[in-house]
Amino acid sequence: MNQRNIRNFAIIAHIDHGKSTLADQIMALTKTVSTREQRAQLLDDMAVEQAHGVTVKARTVRNYYQAEDGQEYEYNLIDTPGHVDFNYEVAKSLSATEGAILLVDATQGVQAQTIANYRIAKKHHLPLIPVLNKVDLASADIEAALAGLHDLDSAFTPDQVLLISAKTGQGVPAVLEAIRTRLPAPTGDAAAPLKALVFDSLYDPYQGVIAYVRLIDGQLKSPQALNLMAADCHFTSKSIGVMTPNMLPQTSLHAGDVGYVVTGIKDPKQIRVGDTLTSAETPTSQPLPGYEPAKSMVFAGLYPQNNDFPALKAAVQKLNLNDPSFTFVEERSEALGVGFRCGFLGAFHLQIIRERLQDEYGIDVLTTAPNVTYHVTLKNGQHVVVNNPVQFPAFSLIEHVEEPFMKAEITTPDASLNAVLKLAEQHKGTLIDLSNNGELVVAVVKIPLSEIASHFFSELKSVSHGFASLNTTFYDNEVSDLVKVEVDINYAPVDALTFVVHREDAPQMTQQLVIGLKSTVPRQLYPTPVQAIVEGKVLARVDVPPLRKNAAVNGDKHSVSKKAALLRRQSANKRRATKNTIKLPQSVFNTILGI
Ligand SMILES: Nc1nc2c(ncn2[C@@H]2O[C@H](COP(=O)(O)OP(=O)(O)OP(=O)(O)O)[C@@H](O)[C@H]2O)c(=O)[nH]1
């Protein structure tokens, strides 16, 4: 196809504003998928996506559009995720496009994630088509939403904004026309040496690594001798093609096209998203700038449930190829054996990775409590960076500890502002700015990342009746009063239960933890003490009751000799048990995730 007739675009929006529904509607209108194939949310086909109703991975689909000018156009659509944890995917998708549709739900107007995505697009200098969705709903407030868009960008005047219902299809043909008339065609040089951006990849058990590429210059054929420039990895393509959304083989791809390359490479480590693909014989002189690696914010240990570490390792490597935004290094825990310490973009990302390991690779993992990165300055002046609570230095050696703080932009209706600010305060947030954007208030709060890493987002949704939205960026590392909590079960420390908390929260959290552990630690023949220890002192303790009645307590009904025999047996068991460790089920480790 002539480059003039190609448009590469993405749809960006706040979570649930209707991106996937619009993508499905575009595929239906361009007859990319036949009605027989049509099923709601074609693009969100990953099991985790259907379970949570959100897009996790960006997708690519080629559509052919018969425009009003009588010509046929190639529309390469890249669907992007909407959750805060996946901003990284959005930036990756956008770098493969020449423009985007900025979709806003008319019942909610501009939200935090709309603003964040808008800024990412502007950073890439991408032209945007503003679109208001869900105008079919009675609760749609078009006037207010138009005003919000105009506040966001003065170029978004009401006559520029398209009104649609992605659900009924109303107004969607005008969006298809706007893509052609308002977004530019790619401008690569088809005669120049091949230069393509690898913007995504996945691992196929039969074909090896499949790379998704955007051709900037030149042509791609198959088989062709190719090179990944940053990795200096030479290979010969097995086949090439486009996504419709299923893989459709092609004989060639040209500058401006988006497609896939079956590389045949079996080692996932060889391919990095952001790398430049070129011809091995006539390489391009200048590689593309590539991506900045994503910064891990939340860390947790992942261990195989069934001790099958090699299987976990293979799965983690393959999954990392498809989602390079999580990091992993091997670690060993006394309680759990060999596993990985992984870094994630946020707590939701951790949950998604865990579920993908289970859905896509059949691997059940044990996870430890998530933590952030601590910067510890020791009394001897040494500086230590801690990503694993077990390595948190002894309290007697510590001068001070710094932890990451985030700048959280919370966009909320005026009515829930008080509840939202109270919640932020409970989580040690301090208000640094408050401004109005129409009906909405934007509160900017400085808050420790550790406080928002697990449940903050859902609490925020609940105090604001679902209306508040959150966008976070790194603020600074600042000094906090933090302590390490160690947990002993039957007097033996369980390293995987170690965590770091703010000193003021330690009494309440350790109490909650031991109460939780009382019902999850498997009962033994003798009472099992569970202790939470902070700086050498036991802060909280429970005894897990024995499987059988305790002779020492319930001895009345027995004769003296029977009682003595029972006591002897129980203490012998106890002596043995301090050496053997009790096998702990996942529920024990979940207790810590729940508090
Ligand atoms: N009434 C109405 N509902 C819509 C419309 N567009 C989308 N929806 C509904 O809104 C919900 C969210 O739509 P999705 O397309 O999944 O939203 P999304 O933006 O892709 O969500 P994420 O991928 O999670 O960011 C779904 O229940 C849709 O059926 C519309 O035009 N009208």
UniProtKB/TrEMBL annotation:
Top-rank EC class of the record's enzyme: hydrolase
> Which reaction is recorded as catalysed by this protein?
GTP + H2O = GDP + phosphate + H(+)
E.C. number(s) listed in UniProt: 3.6.5.n1
Transmembrane intervals: none
Q: Which GO terms describe its molecular function?
A: translation elongation factor activity
Q: Pfam families this protein is in?
A: EFG_C, GTP_EFTU, GTP_EFTU_D2, LepA_C
Tr-type G domain span: 4-187
Locations listed in the record: Cell membrane
How does the record say this protein sits in the membrane? Peripheral membrane protein
Leader sequence residues: none
In terms of superkingdom, the source organism counts as Bacteria
Write out the entry's keywords from A to Z: Cell membrane, Elongation factor, GTP-binding, Hydrolase, Membrane, Nucleotide-binding, Protein biosynthesis
Q: Is Nucleotide-binding a UniProt keyword of this protein? A: yes
The question of whether tRNA processing is a record keyword is answered with no
Binding residues for GTP? 16-21, 133-136
> Do you know which Gene3D superfamilies this protein is assigned to?
3.30.70.240, Elongation factor 4, C-terminal domain (3.30.70.2570), Elongation Factor G (Translational Gtpase), domain 3 (3.30.70.870), P-loop containing nucleotide triphosphate hydrolases (3.40.50.300), Translation factors (2.40.30.10)
Alphabetical list of NCBIfam families matching this protein? lepA, small_GTP
UniProt lists the family membership as follows: Belongs to the TRAFAC class translation factor GTPase superfamily. Classic translation factor GTPase family. LepA subfamily.
Q: Per its database record, what is this protein's job?
A: Required for accurate and efficient protein synthesis under certain stress conditions. May act as a fidelity factor of the translation reaction, by catalyzing a one-codon backward translocation of tRNAs on improperly translocated ribosomes. Back-translocation proceeds from a post-translocation (POST) complex to a pre-translocation (PRE) complex, thus giving elongation factor G a second chance to translocate the tRNAs correctly. Binds to ribosomes in a GTP-dependent manner.
Q: What's the protein name?
A: Elongation factor 4
Upper taxonomic lineage: Bacteria, Bacillati, Bacillota, Bacilli, Lactobacillales
